[in-house]
Design a protein that fits this description.
four-stranded mixed β-sheet; 10 strands; about 110 residues; mainly beta
Length: about 110
C-alpha cells in the first residue's frame, strides 16, 4: 500500500542498499511496503503510519512530523518500545529499527 503523497528514489544512498532510499510525504494513513534499505516518511498534520511486521524486516525507517504531529502504530501482535504505538509531537523525528520481534525507536 502506498502513502498518499509522492515517492522519490534518492541517488547516492550511502547505506549500501540496492534499491536506494525511499522518501514519501504522508497525509492520512499509510502502511509502508518497504522492508529493506532505508525509508523516510514526512508525516503531515496527524498522519498515521501502521508499521509492517518486524519479522525479517531490515529497513531503517525515519519519521519526521510536519505540522501538528503524527502517530506510528505497531503491526498486530508486535510492539514499539514495548508499547502499542508512538505519538510524535510537532516537528519531532524518530528512527525505527526491528529486532525481528518488534520495533525500537532511536
Amino acid at each position: 500500500m502506498r502513502a498518499a503523497g509522492s515517492a522519490v528514489g534518492v541517488a547516492g544512498n550511502t547505506s549500501g542498499n540496492d534499491g536506494g532510499r525511499v522518501v514519501e510525504t504522508v497525509t492520512g494513513q499509510c502502511a509502508p511496503s518497504v522492508t529493506s534499505g532505508e525509508a523516510v516518511y514526512f508525516l503531515r498534520d496527524g498522519a498515521v503510519i501502521t508499521m509492517p511486521s518486524a519479522r525479517g524486516n531490515t529497513c531503517r525507517y525515519t519519521f519526521k512530523t510536519l505540522g501538528s504531529g503524527g502517530r506510528v502504530i505497531a503491526a498486530p501482535g508486535e510492539s514499539i518500545d514495548r508499547g502499542a504505538d508512538l505519538t510524535l509531537g510537532a516537528g519531532q523525528t524518530v528512527e525505527m529499527l526491528s529486532d525481528g520481534n518488534g520495533w525500537w525507536s532511536l
